[in-house]
Design a protein that fits this description.
The structure is a homopentamer of 310-residue chains. By secondary structure, chain A is an alpha/beta fold. Chain A has a single domain, classed as TIM Barrel (Alpha-Beta Barrel), CATH 3.20.20.70. In chain A, 41% of the residues lie in helices and 15% in strands. In chain A, strands 1-2-3-4-5-6-7-8 form an 8-stranded parallel barrel, surrounded by 8 helices. In chain A, β2, α4 and β3 form a beta-alpha-beta unit. In chain A, α7 runs parallel beside α8 and α11 packs antiparallel against α12. Chain A is globular and about 50 Å long. At the C-D interface, α4 and α5 of C face α6, α7 and α8 of D.
């Protein structure tokens, strides 16, 4: 368990905000330095496709499902747009929130036009919101498409908001996806590593990237390049395509304990399940990430044979 | 009848504005939680095509016609651009107004260029206008074209103005239309549901969408996906194409009592009629929406055989 | 003759500015509610083509010619860019000015790129200028190209500056021209009517449009649609192509007394004449517009047989 | 010799700045109302092509050469970017400076993309710089490409900065070049005249244009249209292509005393010569412009047989 | 050794900041007027390609490697993005930092779209950061692509930030690369000279350019044009392609002592080596630059046979 003396504070956090930053860091990482991010920003990013349809639990069509999971499951934070949090947060004050500051839909495809996602809310908005609402807002997040023709706009917004967030003691997570006509393989390990280095140079505390993938190579090994490139920015891995739970948990374990990642960010793989199962999957992920359990132990949590609580 | 204790207040409304928000909500929804929105923003959106020509009452060519309807008919609010309200509002102080903050004409078609509509007035302008004019401004509105190449600009403006409006206790309605070269079917139920989820994530109190339509499917059933996706954001349905009044009122009824919508937004279907008939149609819609009447009862109101007053 | 009690004040004029607005309205309309606008913004709009060449009086090549006409002739206001007014206004303090806030040249044609004209001076600049200079600045003006791909930029600037102008008691005139690749017939009566409705929804006091024209139809009749669509925004008509003076004055008369327009806006048709003739033509236009004279009477003024003075 | 009572002050100069404006005007024009502008902004505009190569004096490759000429030669002002002035100005406090506020390189040609040059420093920057440095900054300048697809951006910047400059008593010079795909002949007399009228409407004190040129016509006569169109904005002529000194001085003389121009703006034609010759050429130009000498007299100055000093 | 009386202070540095500017200048140049810039901004500029792969030391994959080199090696400053500095600076307070204010990735190639890099952090951000962190921030840097279609945006940002930096006593380095569809040879000596003149006109203290290269010509001679064009702006040369150390050091020596440059800016040529070797290479470069040693002496430093310490 980390104590407040173990937390490394970036220099763009003013001294008056050191305590705030440390408290937020310890909350977000459950005093482990690692992060289980439960991602709930897909209602804009993927419209309703992640919430309704074959293979998706009926409960998932109710937006409150996300809050129930985040409330009952063990997670570091629940990431969502400020509007969504504003509309349900009153009933779920206990959750640790990350306010996602930008989002785009998936209607315009890259072949039509390179992706761009612009900042909707400012850090000042978030700070005011946090103060007025009394919610436990721990961090802000932003998605950035490296290699897009609009990359410059997003690099600027990302860099500035990190600096602003730190000024107020908030933590930051960048979602970085290499995407655009210039990017042939979005999961190329070398480009993913570049994304991690970019997050570091922008000063982010965490970066969420896709798990690298290259034909004929071991993703676990490939991932090490990214982890190193990120330096002291923590790398968390997107859930990846839906597969069996054991395989998924194995990935979660490998990403941290084999490659050196700092956690994971999972969305649909969790919320498309019925509430009880979704909670157990969160707990299983947290057992690995926060508890250091092995995959067998995590499976027992997922299957309800054992409980993991921090 | 809702009382002030029944109103759920979003967390981005500061506590000093709780009373204001609640009062506006109860006014707008006539203490029912539902909304009859009378839309009068077409003079820019469709230029003069909705106000002059075959099948349109002569009276509709006079802009004051809109105010007369809104004044004498039973509606939750009359939505129009701030300029229009500024020029006639003095004679119609009793109306509940929604200030539409953006508008575009229909001259440039999507095949030439994806649609974009930019914010003209700020929420601060509206707040000052409300204070200076003494008008009952209850809400602001904004149109957003999901799937347009300019989507990012509009998402940003929409999210920010909702946050600003709530800061001042004003309610918000987003008009969301999926439109652009990337959108094949604008009324696709799944995309309409995505639009509703987007409105929720932006924090809007209400969203106005088109009634979903898919060949071989029942719109009433299809609409449920959208209602669910919207969560606690109220969904109101655009009037749709002009058909017989009974069919129209049936749709209005189904949207609320079959699918779970929160009301409707009607423009030309009302104002293209002579004043007296337009007023009776408003009352008929309100009889269903606010009074919970059935279609037969509403028809009697429309035909002048019975009166509905709140 | 209107008195201050007859002036209808838009609600976006704050009460502290009511007297100012009323005084400006009465000055601009010479207490008649109608407007003779002498347009002198063509030095940017048409470069030097309106001021030099065959059929243009030599005196017109001197920019001061415009000020002499405005000073000696009877007009409601002289419209020009702030820079031009700043350089000659000291010698002509008696003129009622309208500051034209934007302008573009005619070098780039629509077939190359849709037209865009951006705001150069802010209303705050004008208010400061008015105060510092002591000039009688009564109004501001702005040109807007509906149907251009840049329409959104101009709608936003127009709506905002009207709101700003009213905040300071200044009146507003929008020049609205449907123009762009999307517009087939710029003088189509239906689109002109749409332009008038747009001006109303933006809150403008006056709108200047081209006289509608459609093959086989009577422009006087066609113009009525526009007048109605404008509601209580006054419609003034651009001079149209240069023809015989009697025909021109007949148009001026018809536009007001047949169709219900509120006046006219004339530029080159006036200033391309020698000073004395230009003054007499202004007076003739004013005799019709402000004095309610018939065309024969106005012709006598133009020919110097009779005088019209307010 | 003009005295302070002869200076016509534009109305956008506030009364508190009248003395400042008058003093700057008299300095800039050496109390003659005319202007010899020594242009030194080509290091960005033409990169190093004007300063190094065949036919260019070696001394010209040292940027200080420009300052030496401006210091020892007789000129109204030396025009350069603020950065350049900041780096050499301490040694040359006696020079009258014009801060050129924008610049572009010549790498992107019009056939690739229409020209655009954006404002780098604000008038406030210049005012602070003047105060801090103690330099004799008399005026600001800006280049504007009429007919470019980016014309609107530059018209806005130009109009605003003139208004700002006058607010602080600074004079203004616009460089206006018709350029872009829409412009067939950049030196067409009619378009040049339009450029001059545009400068007037933007409120500039001076405008620098190219000497009109049209096959089969006399430039001196053609130039008169421009002079008239400029009204009380002074027209200064760009140096034109390098020819014999006598021919050049003849042009300088004709532009003022035949056509009515207010001076000239010369850059490479001066600085590409060795220091001593460059100084003598400046003096020769000033002998004509400020002293009213004839070409023979000016040639004697250029050849060192006679001196011209104010 | 320069003393504070030898430092030439640009006029845009206010007198209250003279001491600060002088101190920063002496620190940055180690009281020699010359500059060894250690460039560490490639994690965004080149993603991970400079830090991982064949021929690159393993240590270089750890971002802290850069800080170790800058700390133990002799350099004038270490240039990196503010985010990177914020995350490691606490452990390396002794380093002299240059905050690189913009960066782009290399994913979008010029043939797809002309390069643009936008300012991420403002000078105010840097000043606050410096004050809060206590780090020795001496300068700011910015990359500018002359000849890009986005040149105007970057010229504006560059000019303004230099003026801002000087206002706070910070020094400036511009990285200027001619690049874009309009640029055929990026290392053309004449264009490189133009880049240097541009930096001067923008007011920068230093400019980093590529070493000119032209088939059949001697780069050392060619470089003189650039040095002259830069005037009193110091020219530092980018490392160029990796070649043998002796050849590299010969270039470093020639650039300063043959052509008159003010130093060098080296990145990967240093950091791709193991720590100890990288430090020795820094020291060797500094021996030449700061100490005036010859290449043989510098080679002895690089090979560890001799030490160079300031």
């Amino acid at each position: 368990m980390l104590t407040k003396h173990d937390v490394s504070i970036p220099l763009d956090v003013p001294s008056s905000m050191h305590d705030e930053y440390v408290a937020n860091f310890l909350s977000l990482t459950r005093s482990t330095g690692k992060l289980v991010l439960f991602a709930g920003d897909q209602k804009i990013e993927h419209l309703n496709s992640d919430f309704y349809g074959q293979g998706i639990a009926d409960e998932d069509s109710d937006p409150e499902h996300l809050f129930k999971i985040a409330y009952h499951g063990t997670v570091g934070c629940f990431a969502a747009q400020m509007g969504l949090i504003a509309r349900y947060g009153r009933q779920y004050p206990g959750i640790g929130y990350l306010v996602k500051l930008n989002s785009k839909t998936n209607l315009v495809e890259t072949k039509q036009r390179d992706p761009v996602s612009r900042q909707i809310w400012t850090v000042d908005d978030v700070v005011r919101f946090k103060k007025e609402s009394g919610l436990r807002v721990l961090a802000v997040g932003y998605t950035l498409y490296l290699g897009s023709e609009y990359e410059a706009d997003m690099l600027t917004e990302a860099g500035r908001l990190i600096s602003e967030a730190h000024k107020h003691g908030l933590l930051t997570v960048l979602w970085i996806y290499p995407r655009g006509k210039s990017v042939l393989f979005e999961k190329d390990p070398h480009i993913i590593a570049g994304a991690c280095g970019t997050a570091l140079c922008l000063g982010s505390d965490f970066v969420k990237v896709n798990y690298p993938s290259k034909y004929g190579f071991d993703s676990r090994e490939m991932f090490k390049e990214a982890i190193k490139a990120a330096g002291n920015t923590g790398v968390v891995c997107a859930g990846g395509s839906k597969k069996g739970v054991r395989d998924f948990l194995q990935d979660v374990h490998d990403q941290i304990y084999y490659a050196g990642g700092k956690g994971n960010a999972t969305g649909r793989n969790v919320h498309q399940r019925p509430l009880d199962e979704a909670i157990r999957l969160c707990d299983a992920i947290s057992a690995i990430t926060y508890g250091g359990w092995d995959v067998d132990g995590a499976m027992r949590v997922y299957e309800g044979h054992e409980q993991f609580k921090l």
